[in-house]
Amino acid sequence: MSLQLAEANLEDMHEMQTVVFAAYSDYPFARLVVLEIGTESIDIIVKEIQSATERSIRLWKASSTEYWIKIVDSETGTIVGVSQWQIYKDSPFENGAPHVEAEWYPVGSRIREYCTYLMNHRLKRQANRCNLPNIWLNMICTHPKYRRRGVAALMMQWGVTQADEIELEMFVEASSDGTHLYRNFGFVEVEGLSTPRPEGELDEEWKKLEEDYPFEATWMWRPKQKMQSKYCLE
Q1: Between vectors from CA 112 to CA 53 and to CA 202, what angle results, nearest 5°?
Q2: Pairing of strands 169-174, 134-142
Q3: Considering only Cβ atoms within 10 Å of each terminal Cβ, which end of the chain, N or C, has fewer?
Q4: Phi, psi for residue 148 in degrees, rounded to 5
Q5: Which of 169, 131, 138, 168 is nearest to 155 (CA)?
Q6: What pLDDT is recorded for position 31?
Q7: Distances (CA, A) of 95 to 104, 119, 131
Q8: pTM
Q9: How confident is the model at residue 231 (pLDDT cuts 50, 70, 90)?
Q10: CB–CB of 32/24 below 8 Å?
Q11: For 13-22, what is each residue's pLDDT tens digit?
Q12: What pLDDT shows up at residue 39?
């Protein structure tokens, strides 16, 4: 089997989303932010992959910092690995963290409120800690049939090469499955992250959402390789 890395284009998005849905079906937080991921209904999966494709293309077109990388099995021409990177050559949060909304859930629903809260909590942390030029790894995944064949390592090598060429530090919120991979590419563990909770008394519906869709990750950082970083925890 021969694997080839390339920068993706808009026409690749539908196939890349198919990989994302297959790779993240067992991750509770992914099932929260990507509607119907993990469902057993083929009809629903097809519909939601199309929705995710359209949403991702719209966001990509509006971004000047977003890069999608694909790994292709050259024998079949199939995309087997996907990663999404933000390369910020300037300060990405000069005006603070933007507000995002979980627009794929019904207005007024509790799950929309919960998802929106988690996403904005993460964005605020990113804005506080990553306000200098940096590379943010937003997502990296391999199709389950191609795991442990070096797919993710190829994409990581692309990312660290970009960082070293333009002397940028890197950040990622790592799942438990990914920490070893990131360590191999020079990342260090900074802090364990868990589901944030708003102030005040929480009702049973909110607590149930915390149980069903927990957020667990490790904040990891790769310093500049030629310069001392000004990174700090705030």
Answers
A1: 150
A2: parallel
A3: C
A4: 65, 35
A5: 138
A6: 84
A7: 26, 18, 10
A8: 0.89
A9: very low
A10: no
A11: 999 999 999 9
A12: 66
Q: In what order do the strands lie in the sheet with 217-222?
A: 3-7, 66-73, 78-88, 134-142, 169-174, 217-222, 188-193
pLDDT at 30: 85
Which one is predicted more confidently, 40 or 234? 40
> CA distances (Å), 221 to each of 18, 56, 160, 231, in order?
29, 26, 12, 9
Tokens read off for 64: 């000047």
The 3-state DSSP class for residue 172 equals strand
Q: What is the sign of the dihedral through the CA atoms of 83, 87, 91 and 95?
A: negative
Residues 6+ apart with CB under 8 A from 190: 218, 219, 220, 221, 233
Distances in whole angstroms, Cα of residue 97 to Cα of each of 2, 26, 61, 104, 131: 41, 29, 20, 21, 10
% the chain with pLDDT above 70: 93
Cβ atoms 156, 182 nearer than 8 A: yes
Burial 16-51 (b: 16+ CB within 10 A, else e): bbbbbbbbbbebebbbbbbbbbeeeeeeebeebbee
For residue 106, the model assigns a pLDDT of: 94
Model pLDDT, residue 44:
80
| Nearest residue to 168 via CA among 93, 123, 231, 82 | 231
Q: How confident is the model at residue 233 (pLDDT cuts 50, 70, 90)?
A: very low
